[in-house]
Amino acid sequence: MLTVKVLGPGCVNCERLTATTEEALQMLGTEATLEHVTDPAEFRKYRAMMTPGLVVNEKLVCAGRVPSASEVMTLVANVLAEEEKGS
């Protein structure tokens, strides 16, 4: 199952990214676990220098901005495609 994390302290942009990500996952019809991570030590684990950050299956795919729902869909699809190639 897909695991998606939003990295951020809980600011307005973090909330926007969470909502945008939920929208993108619904449009994709993909079952996923969505988690909001607020611990700065976790941000460093993913090498996110700026928040909000978006992590898909433990890979940081975006940081420091709020992508559109269509961009989130593309980012998720790219990670899934990479994982299929590696299988």
Describe this structure in words.
By secondary structure, the chain is α+β, with helices and mostly antiparallel strands. The protein has one domain: Glutaredoxin, CATH 3.40.30. It is built from three helices and four strands, in the order βαβαββα. Strands 2-1-3-4 form a four-stranded mixed beta sheet. Strand 3 and strand 4 (about 60-65) form a beta hairpin. Helix 1 (about 10-30) crosses helix 3 (about 70-85). The two termini are about 15 Å apart. The model has no long low-confidence stretch (mean pLDDT about 95).
Cα separation of the termini: 15 Å
Helical fraction equals 40-55%
CATH class categorisation: Alpha Beta
The string of secondary-structure elements, in order, is: EHEHEEH
CATH superfamily: Glutaredoxin
CATH architecture: 3-Layer(aba) Sandwich
State the secondary-structure class: alpha+beta
Q: What is the averaged pLDDT score?
A: 94
The number of distinct β-strands equals 4
Count of alpha and pi helical runs: 3
Strand residues, percent: 15-25%
Q: Catalogue the unreliable spans.
A: none
Strand order of the largest sheet: 2-1-3-4
Q: How many strands, which pairing sense, and closed or not: the largest β-sheet?
A: 4 strands, mixed
Radius of gyration: 12 Å
Shape: globular
Count of separate structural domains: 1
Oligomer: single chain
List keywords for this structure.
Glutaredoxin, 47% helix, alpha+beta, 3 helices, 87 residues, single chain, 4-stranded mixed β-sheet
Concise structural overview:
The protein is α+β, with helices and mostly antiparallel strands and about 90 residues long. It contains 3 helices and 4 strands. The relative contact order is 0.24.
